[in-house]
Target: Alpha,alpha-phosphotrehalase
Amino acid sequence: MKDFKKSVVYQIYPKSFKDSNGDGFGDLNGIIEKLDYLKELGVDYIWLTPIYISPQKDNGYDVADYYNVDTRFGTMEEFESLVKEAKKREIYIMLDMVFNHTSTEHEWFKKALKGEEKYKNYYIFKKGKNGLPPTNWISKFGGNAWEYVEKFDEYYLHLFDVTQADLNWDNKELRQEIYDVVNFWIEKGVKGFRLDVINLISKPSIFEDDNLGDGRRFYTDGTNIHKYLKELNENTFGKHDDIITVGEMSSTSIDNCIKYSNPNEKELSMVFNFHHLKVDYKDGEKWSLMDFNFKQLKELFNEWQNGMINGNGWNALFWCNHDQPRVNSRFGNVKKYHKESSTMLATTIHLMNGTPYVYQGEEFGMTNPEFDKIEEYKDVESINYYNILKSQGINEEEIMKILKSKSRDNSRTPIQWDDTLNAGFTTGTPWINVSSNYKDINAKNALNNKESVFYYYKKLINIRKEEDIIAYGDCKMLLPEHKQVYAYERKLNNENIIVVNNFYDKECTINLNKEIDYNIEKVETLISNYNDKYDNLEKINLRPYESFAIKIK
Ligand code: GLC
Model:
């Protein structure tokens, strides 16, 4: 059995990973082809974003049938063979479970629309108010969060796209349906679940307007959320001791995350939170441009590391996923310091307390594609916001600049396997354009160069396995006031690991001796993105994006 504290999860967005049959979409057989590659990297779990039958309005997060694999991705037999082939390599499959909503193409919703009471109660239908929707809540993808159904003279709630209808978790019958789905996939040999926006499932008993915000305070970490998660745990994965779970927690708090992930609470193994990925939102607004606030980033990391350790909770550590732009394009410098900044960002999170997640392509430094035309964007949120920003009078050039840096499609471009046509992703026409830098940045080049970003990730993954301090130690921020360095010390028994990261292209000098309050007998360099050794801790000159970890005894 794997210890999830020493494990690393690799996220696959199947649509963009590897196409085995030339239809332009990645598929399960494509993933099987690349298992040896993932074994070489050293990951323990593969999280697959949704592969179920879906109209793909939100790339699979609009599920029409939880029990079957979408033909675009393959067949159930191919899924079973993926589970088997992965297991041979000691890699386990984690599935993405979307239980806040279903597609409006799901048979439950179709029956609801026909007027079947049982299924109407699976969703959230409400009367409007004086010709207006039941509340003024805003959908996460823009616009009002309610859709009118004339036949009933009622509205249904959709916190996301209009084709993603929210489920009514207050209905016990619905909850049982969900348990059945999870147990079905457990039977198939799945060893992990990622629960999509799971902290939004408990809606309030009274629906009221939000005069302070977009409505999220009424349903985020809602009234019955802990009760529902405990019940889900008890009826499904909690019956097995080798299944890990991670909840995607939108706009959450440390207190709630401790509850979600403290083993005594019997809810989930770990949680994703997004606070550190809002440090470049101007006044909290995603669709704006701003340099990242480094001070705030350091404070957030420190708060969450210590808060979760003290509360016996467990974090999922990540920069990248299918909803976030590529981190090296975002907080690094991919033009001048591609390798240095990509590896520095990796060191920063991999050696913290929590379980690291690597998003496909991150391990060899894939970047944002810098699409120039709106036609190149496929994501429903990006297209909605393109229109919203236009209607606010923002000019085309500015909007394209915002999309280039903020769109979710930045991370959804095909994996750059090599320098052949379509980066070796497909022999057909890819569903979304390949980034133009694929001739330089691709997996083949990375594998052929022992100094590449890929081997740096491999080393980081290995350090977690070798050093107990990384999984079980405390975490203290060093040089808290430093304007360009984020450093921290991990501590367990009499051993210490210090991790230093220069977040900028400017050089600087630091003195670590001043930070250390114990006797130093021996300093061992565990990793350095400049291949250096660090013996004199009193004066360390840090080069652009320099990053290293040392072990002190
Ligand atoms: C999560 C997913 C995102 C999706 C949304 C609605 O945030 O990661 O891709 O659009 O939930 O399901």
